[in-house]
Recover the amino acids of this structure.
């Protein structure tokens, strides 16, 4: 935990009560609590309504993903990656396939890269919409949640069109994609791009001009740049605190260097900016989606390397060799060379990295995921100390943690 | 005055009407909120979901009734009763029509000379139910919720009491029936500014008093789970719920009676049907309906204040505004009229 957080609480206590002997009320928030976005548990010390400490206790959604991955073939691991961060599932899929491809030195075709970027950014918008909606819900505003869900629904429809499911897509494959885009997809994405800015305007109008919302978020839960660095905060929350870091721009992957987009950064580090930065990021994601869509050209969607990608269906009827490769891939998968890689990407929540170790076998020797939500929930305590209980709820919401992303 | 058995019967009918009103207020709220939020709302049980409140009531009654082990059992059981009884009782002094209009009887239960004080007092006693309930449950969430609630309701009582002063000064009586008959707006247009400000302050205070959005802190779901009702289940939960909704109806009726002409209709309808503005129940019901719809509209459009902001708003702003309205009205009465 942040070292100076308890220190600040002591100072506050001294200020408020002097030598007078007071007792804090320790209250347990979560793991089942409406504001904890899943199963986060916080042990909160309250002095009246003022938060004096908020220690996160994690592990309530521990599913052993990393360990399970050691017993799945490299290709099967994709099934697990997207279950960690269910709100920005494709971000996890992308980070994993990029890492595995780096091990294999695979050549992913242009079209597959574009489609990956397009879908990941759409998914990022969906994730931010969820974060915004639930964040406002946590402040007692019921209606915006349903409005953001309306737009998110359209994105989920698009992703369902592509992958067949609304959650846990599993559409990316090591070496490419599982299948090509369906007919009429481009037109639907274009329609979404055309409609979304108006909806975004509507959201901004719903909260940016609301006096109560401004009073609830301005100067609330301020995280200094230093504290953000200290706890390892990344993503939109860090950018709201003045950390100008975005791996899409700073360490481009999957062809992000070809897209023009801005990285919204703010200095204040309060809940207000954490909301606004997310809102502006959606606009930038939309720009990327538009560029990816315009540059989408027909072509292959998988690495032609027979040792990585399954052969086309029709080849199985004419080529014995294809059948052999198909059999090998389906029964045991491919064998990346021995070695280890780390690939860091920018998920909707921050830096998401996969560290893979291969012993040359058909399954990973070790998978370590650097998920952004774990460091991000560490920022809740320093942001909340000295504020009220209601502010803490806002802070949890604006850190936007996904507990599957924390507990792995 | 009517015979006692008639009064008793009227009280019974009023309770039943209020409880039915509560049930259908939940339906109205859910359907309206759904419309505001791109949803349809409950529409499966009965025509347009009209049987939904009944289904909910049945469900509520048959739920397991849990009393926490460390709860103070007597107070824990008593608290929802206090809340609901005083919520119902408050309605008794509100007149719904001219004298002798209800089959030759009076359309009110009691005609108190201190009717206004009576309504203010009984709605305040309802706070005890909330406070005791939160205290007796022996849960930290309930305790926080009930503390917030008590502090909030007591602070807003001030605004409520002060904004009523304008009406009392103009009408010169505390009798709600006479206040309606005098019709504070008809006395002089010079009094309108003071009355408008008073209405504004009273409206906000009443919103806080019934814990409607944006003052719904006592049961701020995302912070305190359910506030003082966290540990309540089954029928006891339903009673608190009932008290809250009946409180909303009473507040609407009280606002209508004090500021909006009560059971009287607008004068121009007499041109359509002679005597229409004197019809009992109709106008009061319409006014309550409109005011409740505005409450629900607020629920859909606003978010919650923070505790300290709420207190500051109550003491610094609302208190001053209500006081200003009272002074303005008083000055006009003293120096102009």
């Amino acid at each position: 935990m942040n070292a100076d957080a308890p220190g600040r609480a002591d100072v506050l206590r001294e200020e408020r009560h002097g030598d007078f002997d007071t007792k804090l009320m320790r209250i347990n928030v979560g793991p089942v609590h409406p504001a904890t976005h899943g199963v986060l548990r916080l042990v909160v010390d309250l002095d009246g309504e003022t938060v004096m400490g908020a220690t996160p206790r994690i592990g309530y959604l521990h599913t052993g993903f990393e360990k399970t991955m050691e017993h799945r073939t490299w290709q099967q691991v994709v099934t697990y990656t997207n279950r960690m961060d269910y709100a920005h599932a494709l971000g996890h899929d992308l980070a994993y396939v990029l890492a595995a491809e780096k091990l294999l030195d695979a050549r992913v075709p242009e079209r597959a890269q574009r489609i990956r970027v397009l879908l990941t950014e759409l998914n990022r918008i969906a994730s931010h919409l969820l974060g915004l909606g639930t964040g406002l819900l946590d402040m007692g505003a019921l209606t915006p949640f349903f409005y953001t869900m309306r737009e998110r629904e359209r994105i989920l429809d698009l992703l369902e069109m592509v992958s067949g499911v609304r959650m846990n897509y599993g559409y990316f494959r090591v070496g490419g994609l599982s299948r090509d885009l369906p007919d009429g997809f481009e037109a639907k994405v274009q329609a979404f791009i055309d409609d979304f800015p108006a909806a975004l305007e509507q959201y901004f109008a719903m909260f940016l001009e609301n006096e109560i919302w401004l009073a609830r978020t301005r100067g609330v839960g301020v995280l200094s740049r230093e504290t953000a660095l200290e706890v390892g905060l990344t993503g939109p929350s860090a950018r709201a605190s003045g950390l100008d870091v975005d791996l899409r721009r700073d360490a481009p992957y999957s062809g992000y260097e070809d897209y023009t987009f801005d990285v919204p950064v703010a200095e204040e580090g309060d809940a207000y900016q954490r909301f606004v930065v997310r809102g502006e990021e959606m606009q930038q994601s939309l720009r990327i989606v538009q560029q990816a869509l315009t540059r989408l050209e027909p072509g292959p969607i998988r690495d032609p390397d027979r040792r990585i990608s399954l052969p086309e269906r029709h080849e199985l009827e004419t080529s014995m060799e294809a059948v052999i490769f198909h059999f090998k891939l389906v029964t045991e998968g491919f064998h990346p060379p021995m070695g280890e890689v780390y690939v860091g990407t920018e998920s909707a929540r921050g830096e998401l990295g996969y560290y893979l170790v291969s012993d040359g076998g058909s399954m990973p020797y070790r998978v370590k995921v650097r998920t952004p939500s774990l460091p991000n929930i560490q920022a809740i305590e320093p942001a909340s100390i000295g504020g009220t209980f209601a502010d803490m709820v806002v802070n949890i919401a604006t850190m936007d943690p996904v507990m599957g992303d924390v507990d792995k | 005055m009517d015979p006692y058995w008639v009064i008793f019967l009227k009280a019974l009918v009023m309770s039943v009407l209020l409880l039915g009103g509560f049930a259908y207020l939940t339906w109205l709220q859910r359907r309206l909120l759904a419309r505001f939020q791109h949803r349809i709302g409950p529409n499966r049980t009965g025509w347009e979901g009209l049987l939904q409140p009944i289904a909910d009531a049945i469900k509520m009654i048959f739920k397991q009734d849990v009393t926490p082990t460390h709860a103070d059992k007597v107070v824990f059981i008593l608290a929802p009763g206090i809340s609901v009884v005083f919520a119902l009782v408050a309605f008794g002094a509100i007149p719904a029509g001219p004298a002798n209009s209800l089959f030759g009887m009076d359309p009110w239960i009691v005609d108190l000379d201190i009717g206004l004080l009576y309504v203010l007092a009984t709605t305040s006693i309802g706070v005890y139910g909330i406070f005791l309930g939160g205290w007796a449950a022996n849960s930290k969430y309930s305790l926080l919720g009930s503390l917030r609630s008590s502090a909030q309701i007591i602070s807003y009582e001030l605004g409520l009491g002060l904004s009523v002063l304008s009406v009392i000064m103009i009408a010169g009586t505390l009798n709600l029936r006479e206040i309606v008959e005098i019709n504070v707006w008809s006395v002089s247009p010079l009094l309108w500014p003071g009355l408008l400000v008073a209405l504004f302050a009273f409206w906000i205070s009443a919103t806080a008093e019934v814990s409607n959005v944006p003052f719904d802190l006592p049961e701020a779901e995302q912070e305190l789970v359910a506030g003082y009702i966290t540990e309540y289940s089954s029928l006891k939960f339903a009673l608190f719920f009932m008290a809250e909704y009946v409180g909303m109806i009473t507040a609407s009726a009280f606002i209508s009676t004090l500021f909006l002409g009560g059971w009287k209709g607008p004068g121009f309808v007499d041109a359509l049907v002679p005597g229409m503005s004197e019809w009992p129940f109709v106008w009061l019901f319409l006014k309550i309906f409109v005011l409740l719809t505005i409450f629900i509209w607020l629920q859909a459009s606003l978010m919650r204040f923070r505790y300290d902001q709420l207190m500051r708003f109550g003491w610094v702003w609302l208190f001053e505004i209500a006081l200003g309205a009272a002074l303005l009205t008083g000055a006009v009465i003293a120096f102009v009229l």
